[in-house]
TrEMBL record:
Domain CBS: start-end pairs: 94-150, 154-212
Regulation: Mycophenolic acid (MPA) is a non-competitive inhibitor that prevents formation of the closed enzyme conformation by binding to the same site as the amobile flap. In contrast, mizoribine monophosphate (MZP) is a competitive inhibitor that induces the closed conformation. MPA is a potent inhibitor of mammalian IMPDHs but a poor inhibitor of the bacterial enzymes. MZP is a more potent inhibitor of bacterial IMPDH.
InterPro entries: Aldolase_TIM, CBS_dom, CBS_dom_sf, IMP_DH, IMP_DH/GMP_Rdtase_CS, IMP_DH_GMPRt
Broadest EC class assigned to this enzyme: oxidoreductase
Entry similarity comment: Belongs to the IMPDH/GMPR family.
Pathway(s) this gene product operates in, as recorded in its UniProt entry: Purine metabolism; XMP biosynthesis via de novo pathway; XMP from IMP: step 1/1
Binding residues for IMP: 305, 340-342, 363-364, 413
Single GO MF descriptor: metal ion binding
Residues reported to bind K(+): 302, 304, 307, 467-468
Name of this protein: Inosine-5'-monophosphate dehydrogenase
Any one GO biological process: GMP biosynthetic process
C-alpha cells in the first residue's frame, strides 16, 4: 500500500489566476483544437456516447457547430450504422449516391423510403443509373391510390434542370437560383446520374462555416464500441459506414481487454482508422493506450454527474488532477486528451482545457436538450428530460442481451436522473464557448495552447468557492 503525498483536486477546488491580457475583443480568440491526432475542430466540445445524449440529431448539430457527437453503442449494430449514415448524409458537397427509387415502385413504397431516410425527394432511376425523373413529397401528398407506380407521379426527366458532372458549387448555386428548384442532379451526356447537389447543402455551408467536416464536405461523426464479443463486428460495420472516429469506451480503459481491442483495431485497419480510447485517470493509463495506438485518450474515472463508480468501488481520481497528470503524459506521445465528465459550466470547461485537455466530453448538461434522444416529461408543471449512467440499472436492463442479465448480479455504477429541459443544445454550446472566449482573455491567451502555457491555478477553500457564486442576494 502507498498513499500519494498530494491531495488531488477537482474543478471547484481551484480558480485560474487572471493575467495581463493583450486580447482586446473576445472575437479575436481562436477556440480550435485537436480532436484526435490529425483531425482538428473549431470548438473543443464533444457530446457523450450516452443513450440519453447522442444519436444522429445531436451529432449533426454538434458537428455543425464545430464540435463532434459520438453515437452511443447501446443499440443493434444495424441501428448504430443507420445513425452514423444519417450524419454522414446530412450534408455534402456532392451527394455521390443519392437516394433513389425505381419507376415501377409504388406510392406506398416511396412514402416508406422517404420516411426511413428522412428525405423529401428521391431520384427516379432505372437499373443502369439513368435519370427518369424526381419524386418529391409534394407529388404524392394527396395521392389516395397507394399502388400507383411513381413513374406516373414524378416530374419527368425532360422537365428537370440538370448539370454535367464536375459542376462547381458556385455554378450550381446560380443554376438552382435561376430555376428556383432545390435539387440539381449531375448527369452525363448518356443520361447517367453521377451525383446530386442540393440547395440545402449550399445554404448549410454558409450557415455553419465552422462545421467539423471530412474532405468530401460531410459532417464528421464518432461512434462508440466496446470490448465484448461482437464488438469487432460492430467496429467493422461502423468503419464501412464511414464513422470518422471510433471511440473505444469502457469504464476501466486501462485494462487488458481495452488494450487487446485497441491492438486488434490497429493490426487490422492500420492507420486508416482514428481511435479515441478510454477512460483512464493516470499517466500509466495514457502511456499504455498511446503505445497500443490510441489517437486520443479520454480521461475521467467517476467525475460524471450520473456516476457512482467512486462510491461503489472506491476508485477514481478527482478530475482536474487526473487531467493534469494525464495530459503531461500524453504530450510525450502527441496524443490529445479529452476531459470526460463533470463539466457543469463554461468555467469548468476553461479549467479542464487550462489543465491540459484538448477538448471536453459532455453528458448530462446536454441530456436536457431538444437534440438529445428521449421525450420531455412534465413534473409539477416543469419540463424535464431523463439522463442516465450507462452503467445504471435501467441502462443495463435495456441492453440487447438483457435476457441474459441476472438482476441479482447487476451492480450499478451509475444512476438515472432528470434534468431540466433547456431547449436547443445550440444555445448551451453558445454559452459555453462564449464563457471560454472570456476565459482566454482573462488568461492573456489567443489560443488554447496559450491558455495552457499561461495557466496558473490557485487552490481555494470552501469559503472561496462560496464567494465565487452569487451570495447574500436572492437570485431572480
Ligand atoms: P457528465 O458529467 O457530463 O459525464 O454527465 C458524462 C460521462 O460520464 C461517464 N458515464 C458514467 N460513469 N457510471 C460512471 O461511473 C455510469 O453509469 C456512467 N455513464 C456515463 C461517461 O464517461 C460520460 O461521458
Amino acid at each position: 500500500m502507498r498513499i500519494r503525498d498530494q491531495h488531488a483536486l477537482t474543478f471547484d477546488d481551484v480558480l485560474l489566476v487572471p493575467r495581463r491580457s493583450p486580447v482586446r475583443s473576445r472575437r479575436d480568440v481562436d477556440t480550435s483544437t485537436d480532436l484526435v491526432r490529425g483531425i482538428r475542430m473549431a470548438i473543443p466540445i464533444i457530446s457523450a456516447n450516452m443513450d440519453t445524449v447522442t444519436e444522429s440529431e445531436m451529432a449533426i448539430t454538434m458537428a455543425r457547430l464545430g464540435g463532434l457527437g459520438v453515437i452511443h453503442r447501446f443499440m443493434t449494430i444495424e441501428r448504430q450504422v443507420a445513425e452514423v449514415l444519417r450524419v454522414k448524409r446530412a450534408e455534402n458537397l456532392v451527394v455521390e449516391d443519392p437516394y433513389r427509387i425505381a419507376p415501377t415502385a409504388t406510392v406506398a413504397e416511396a412514402r416508406r423510403l422517404m420516411d426511413e431516410w428522412g428525405s423529401g425527394g428521391l431520384l427516379v432511376m432505372d437499373a443502369e443509373d439513368n435519370l427518369l425523373g424526381i419524386l418529391t413529397t409534394r407529388d404524392i401528398l394527396f395521392e389516395d391510390d397507394e399502388t400507383r407506380p411513381v413513374a406516373e407521379l414524378m416530374t419527368p426527366r425532360e422537365r428537370l434542370v440538370t448539370a454535367p458532372p464536375g459542376t462547381s458549387l458556385e455554378e450550381a448555386r446560380k443554376i438552382l437560383h435561376r430555376a428556383k428548384v432545390e435539387k440539381l442532379p449531375l448527369v452525363d451526356e448518356n443520361g447517367r446520374v453521377h451525383g446530386l447537389i442540393t440547395a440545402k447543402d449550399i445554404v448549410k455551408r454558409r450557415q455553419y462555416p465552422q462545421a467539423t467536416k471530412d474532405e468530401k464536405g460531410r459532417l464528421r461523426v464518432g461512434a462508440a464500441i466496446g470490448v465484448k464479443r461482437g464488438e469487432r463486428e460492430r467496429a467493422e460495420a461502423l468503419i464501412r459506414a464511414g464513422a470518422d472516429i471510433l471511440v473505444l469506451d469502457i469504464a476501466h480503459g486501462h485494462s487488458d481487454n481495452a488494450l487487446d481491442m485497441l491492438k486488434w483495431l490497429r493490426d487490422t485497419y492500420g492507420e486508416d482508422v482514428r481511435i479515441m480510447a478510454g477512460n483512464v485517470a493516470t499517466a500509466e493509463g495514457v502511456r499504455d493506450l498511446a503505445e497500443a495506438g490510441a489517437d486520443a485518450v479520454k480521461v475521467g474515472v467517476g467525475p460524471g454527474s450520473i456516476c457512482i463508480t467512486r462510491i461503489v468501488t472506491g476508485f477514481g481520481v478527482p478530475q482536474l488532477s487526473a487531467v493534469i497528470e494525464c495530459s503531461e503524459a500524453a504530450r510525450e506521445y502527441g496524443v490529445p486528451i479529452v476531459a470526460d465528465g463533470g463539466i457543469r459550466t463554461s468555467g469548468d470547461l476553461t479549467k479542464a482545457l487550462a489543465a491540459g485537455a484538448q477538448s471536453v466530453m459532455i453528458g448530462s448538461l446536454f441530456a436536457g436538450t431538444r437534440e438529445s434522444p428521449g421525450r420531455i416529461v412534465q413534473r409539477q408543471g416543469r419540463r424535464y428530460k431523463v439522463t442516465r449512467g450507462m452503467a445504471s440499472l435501467g441502462a443495463t436492463m435495456s441492453r440487447q442481451d438483457s435476457a441474459e442479465i441476472d438482476i441479482e448480479q447487476v451492480v450499478p455504477e451509475g444512476v438515472e436522473a432528470m434534468v431540466p429541459y433547456r431547449g436547443s443544445v445550440v444555445d448551451i454550446v453558445r454559452q459555453l464557448v462564449g464563457g471560454l472566449r472570456s476565459g482566454l482573455s482573462y488568461a492573456g491567451a489567443y489560443t488554447i495552447p496559450e491558455l495552457q502555457a499561461n495557466a496558473e491555478f490557485v487552490p481555494i477553500t470552501l469559503a472561496g468557492m462560496q464567494e465565487s457564486k452569487p451570495h447574500d442576494v436572492e437570485v431572480l
